[in-house]
Amino acid sequence: MNNSILFAVIALSAIGAMSAIILYFVAQKFKVIEDPRIDEVEDSLPKANCGGCGYAGCRAFAEKIVKNGSMDSLNCPVGGNDVMAQVAQILGLQADEKDPMIAVLRCNGSRENAPAKIKYDGPATCAFAHNLYSGESGCPFGCLGLGDCVVSCKFGALYMDPKTGLPTVVTDKCIACGACVKACPRHIFELRFKGKKDRRIYVCCVNEEKGAPAKKNCEVACIGCGKCVKACAYDAIELKNNLAYIDFEKCKLCRKCVDECPTNAIHELNFPPRKVKPDGVEEQVQSPSAESSVS
Amino acid sequence: MKTFKAGGVHPPENKFSADAAIEILPIPKRAYVLTSQHLGIPATILVKRGDDVKTGQLIAKSSGFISANIHSPVTGKVFKIEDVIDQSGYKRPAIIIDTTEDIWEDGIEPSDKIEREITLSREEIIKRINELGVVGLGGATFPTHIKMMIPEGKNAELLIINGVECEPYLTSDHRLMLEKGEQILIGTAILMKALGVSKAMIGIENNKPDAIAHLSILSEGFKGISVHALKVKYPQGGEKQLIKALTGREVPSGKLPIETGCVVNNVGTAFAVYEAVQKRKPLIERVVTVTGKAAKKPSNFMVRIGTPISELIEKAGGIHENLGKVISGGPMMGKALTSPEVPVLKGTSGILLMLKEESAREKISNCIRCAKCISVCPMGLEPYLLEKLTFIENYEQAESQRILDCMECGSCHYTCPAGRPLLDYIRLGKSKVSFLVRNRKKQ
Question: Which of A264, B45, B149, B285 has the most other CB atoms within 10 Å of its CB?
């Protein structure tokens, strides 16, 4: 009786010891040598696995950046400059300062500005609706309002505004990963510079129709009149396919185009209110209180 | 009785307008002639604002291999060239013509006299079909002259004329067969000559016994043409299903019907070919059914292309108080219109007016894995799987599951007890996959 227990213990211990020795040699033979910096870099990344950098998750990005040996065109939009500086430190490289970006919805076809003419009762997905028809307002370029972008956002930075029927970007949460840009079947979202004090100027329309049909469907459509192009002193505005586009790298935020636009299609965000002089000439005010208007 | 083997459904037929004779609709005051009325590249506009045009005059020229000429359906002055909303829900360029009295272009014979003698040679027939803008009137609007040109190495041995009209409600082909039977048969003989085949089969579903009897009697006067009754089953009017039903041959995946030696044309196309070849009349009018439970007077109209659909609805008794949707085409494959001012195109076979309660979409619930969609798919696909693959954006897998073979008949969506939007997903997946395939070809 006692013997059989003893045999079992000895036999199992012997098998265990043998296996340990085999495993040790196998592990030595097939050892994968991995750069320890990959783990370090991965630890410093935000681990959102959003794919905003263009790679499949943070691990893949860390592998790429370590293997590359330089940080050109590699950027983690979630972490921003701080994280990239940290990564640069680990790798002993120099990180470029990148201007922070933000997703911008270039459509203002709210329920009021672009009233619905028809009713859509298909599945509530922009991708289907885009394949089927031009939209409830009739604008073939504008927002369909079914929220594919909201579903795509992993940071809770987008929500549908029930009043306007348009998605709204939460400035503090958006990290410009670009998921909404890819999700929108009409390419309405664009990543633009966040701007100093969150000040931004952009054309809030993507309609490429001529003036009359565009205005027919939406009060605030860009009609391609070209007034803003003439007003811009910095050559930052381009008129293409009846649509004005402001190059955010050239724009100096002077706000002249905003005043010129006859349909209010050019939006300014977070600017201080304009002081109206007694003779009616508007003047830009540089008040430090503008920071409080940041949403 | 013959039919195709795999899948298929049998929705309520509801052929309300089967007994309504074809009425000629008055010429509209303003005609909207779109430049993309066919499959392929839109035609190039030849006229400009203020030009006078005659009925039957060429106003837009074919601008590529797969493209078709477009002729003025009315006489009048070009009012404008502008984008108008069409069946797709998007704006497309159109020639808008203000009509005056109807004067036909020289050379066209507008009389109803039946010309039986086929005098033209094979090449001349194809040339004339091409010149006069004849396209397939079954729905896909594929330019007919391209179908007539058999690719090298292939051999056509059989012409199939599609008189199935498997879509519920629609009766335009049915009425055409009853009223223009002889012309259709002459058109068939012309197509046979153009293809160089000695045999033609006309397939008609068994719910049109009068048309079967009528054409059977008439076809005795034509050599090589036979009429076949088919069991009622949707989508028998699909090219591949019809070939399978009549000959038992199967078109390989991703290939054209010519692989089986068959060429399929619709009865409407046969009639248009007769008019083009024997009367030099371009394709400027077609039969359109206006029907549905919300139609006050279900009718069949001979309509000039470019007539706004609102005029057809007006003529069929006006708008019902409880109108839910206006659909261009049949209930299975048709598209809901976004505006009643959409014009009639070469491919418009019917206008379906649906009541609010029947047009509403079903509530979507979860897939219950009953596999009904698989059993009804006439192409032998797995719709539930294609839906899922599109949902998770795995387009490579969707391609290997042959998503591009789907012909969008809608049987899966019709039969799904959970009300899943299967066809919507598959359509989306198809467009993504064909985009991938095109990109791959470019590289």
Answer: B285
